[in-house]
Amino acid sequence: MSTDLPPELLDYFATRQQQRADRANTALSVLSRYERRIVREAAGMGYVLGYRSGNLDGRDGLGGPLDNERRIPGDSDILRSVLEHCDSTSDLYPYLGAACNGRRRRITKARLWPGEAAR
Question: What is the pTM of this model?
Answer without folding.
Answer: 0.72
